[in-house]
Amino acid sequence: MDGNKKIISNTIITYLKSLITIVISLVTTRYLLDYLGQSDYGLFNVVAGVVFMLAFLNTTMANATQRFLSFNINNKETVNKLYNSSFVIHFIIAVLFIFFIEVVGVYMVNNQLNIDLSRLEAANVLIQIVAVSTFFVILSIPVEALIISKENFKFLAISSTLEVILKFIAVLCLLFVNHDKRLVFYGLLLALLTVFIKVLKFIYLHWKYKYVKINFSKFFDKNIIKELTSFAGWNLFGSLSTIGKNQGLTIIYNLFFNTSVNAAYAVATQISSQLLFFSRTLMQTIRPQMASSEGEGDRVRLMDLIFKSCKFSFMLTAFVVIPFLFESKSIYRFWLGDDYPNYTELFTFFILINILLYQLTIGIHSGIQSIGKIKNYQITVGVFELLALPVSYLFFSLGYPVVFGMIFYTLSEIAANTTRIIVIKKLTNFNLKNYFAEVLYKQIIPVFSSIITCYVVVNIFDFKYRFILTICLSITVFVFTVYYYSFNKEEKFFVKQMFSKISNKISNKMIN
Question: How many C-beta neighbours within 10 Å does residue 7 have?
């Protein structure tokens, strides 16, 4: 199977998984908010919010290790050296991370965070549970990376679907627990599920790929350790900067406001995360191909993948984000009822705008990762992202409202996007003119057509389930304009060919 066909095949598999998990996750959030209440739900996201951030950390760090594995995927001995060396590095990182939680995290819970005294004991138990989850998540990163390098997205889809189903069951179990004990009980169940899924992936990897062994004495390689440590270290800095910006803002909101604001921020983050599933799926299948292209010295294909991933990631995000921005109030009422947290719509607006901005350079980020020269890049982007925190703290201490935190959040993303373009130009023959022509200009007609459609619908119609009409019409207009304006001849031919194959398969089945 050639590279493009493999990308398409893996993308379809992961899409099906994502469609299932997004529905289950949204239902889970609705019940969790009901069963815990706004205050405990907000507290959970302040204290154990690191659990949600760990999903991002896990993916980002796995991509870093996967980059080296994809380079050498056909060399079994090198793969084993990378795998074992990566285990050593991530064990050290896991220990340091737990130390950080035990020292800084416990201090913050008991001395800094705005937590009701009656829930302080629960918060302290919860942060210990988080520490255990953290250790296993980080330690499992080499396993995740090797499975991604093998492009075994079928197993990843199955394991991810199983995980969200078990999480939903965990929420339903709260019905049988006293209200004051639900917070700790849910945290404990979540930790057990995390450990179970990580162990399951470890067992599967060693069963499926029997040549992969854990033998530190045989496969320990100082040179690989040094190279991996340098790359993983700077990549970890970048990941922690993003986590720090998101989770740090949660803590700052807690210091100046209350847990209800944290609940609103958590709901907005949850829905935003689910709306990213199309883009996330595409990038998960393209990244191994990027690393392979760079490993083979094929910069032409790498540039092509960078442009395509920026272009299609934005499109796959915008076509669902734009109607959601217009109908967020109606959708939240349908999903969570009338009593959803204040500021949820405000947070949602800014977070989704930030997501759209990031999509415009997401392929550039992955391209830089594939090339491997990331030190200056991660430092610059990381500083811009973290800068949003002290500025937000300063403005809140002066009495400015909630919205200012999100304004600085957005400005940091704009600065990060600019940095990515500057760095890729220095590293490669990246053509900025082509980037504007192939990526940015191709978005103008679909985006404005969708915005106009949504604006017309929400100003003409007013009924309970109007959001369904808005979403359907907006997506139809977006897809139509993308096909006729944004796609080139090759992309149009591919779409026609794909639908032709699907149509023939359906016809053959009906005949048989």
Answer: 20
* Residue-wise pLDDT tens digits, 36-57: 877 777 777 666 655 555 555 5
Are 385 and 416 in contact by the 8 Å Cβ rule? The answer is: yes
Distance in angstroms (rounded) separating the CA atoms of residues 483 and 454: 19
% of residues, the chain, pLDDT over 90: 20
Query: Given this model, what pLDDT does residue 6 score?
Result: 55
> Would you say how long the chain is, in residues?
512
3-state class (DSSP) for residue 289: helix
226-229: which pairs have CB atoms within 8 A and are 24 or more residues apart? 227/68, 228/65, 228/68, 228/82, 228/85, 228/86, 228/89, 229/89
- Tell me the CB-side half-sphere exposure of residue 218, using CA atoms within 13 A: 9
CA distances from 60 to 154, 243, 284 (A): 20, 11, 11
User: Rounded to an integer, what distance in angstroms lies between the CA atom of residue 65 and that of residue 82?
Assistant: 8
CA distance 477 to 473: 6
How many CB atoms within 10 Å of residue 509?
8
- Range scoring the smallest mean pLDDT among 274-283, 336-345, 414-423: 274-283
Contacts of 442 (CB under 8 A, 6+ apart): 311, 485, 486
pLDDT of residue 218: 74
Contact 359, 306 (CB under 8 A): no
- Angle at the Cα of 178 from the Cα atoms of 172 and 179, rounded to 5 degrees: 80
Closest CA to 386 of 246, 245, 248, 252: 245
Integer Cα distance of 133 and 144 in angstroms: 16
Beta strands in 262-398, from DSSP E residues, in sequence order:
none
How far apart are the C-alpha atoms of 84 and 381, rounded to whole Å?
30
Residue 99 CA from chain centroid, whole number = 25
Task: Tell me the CA distances in angstroms from 103 to 37, 241, 331, one per residue in order.
Answer: 29, 19, 41
The single-letter DSSP state of residue 119 is G
* C-alpha distances out from residue 101 to 56, 66, 115, 194, 444, Å: 17, 27, 17, 18, 45
Of 352, 453, 342, which is closest to residue 402 (Cα–Cα)?
A: 342
- Number of H helices and number of E strands within the chain? 21, 0
At 289, list the tokens. 């191909």
pLDDT at 448 > cutoff 90: yes
What is d(CA 112, CA 467) in angstroms, rounded to the nearest whole number? 41
Question: Residue 8 class from Cβ within 10 Å (0-12 exposed, 13-18 middle, 19+ buried)?
Answer: middle
Give dist(CA 406, CA 412) in Å, integer: 10
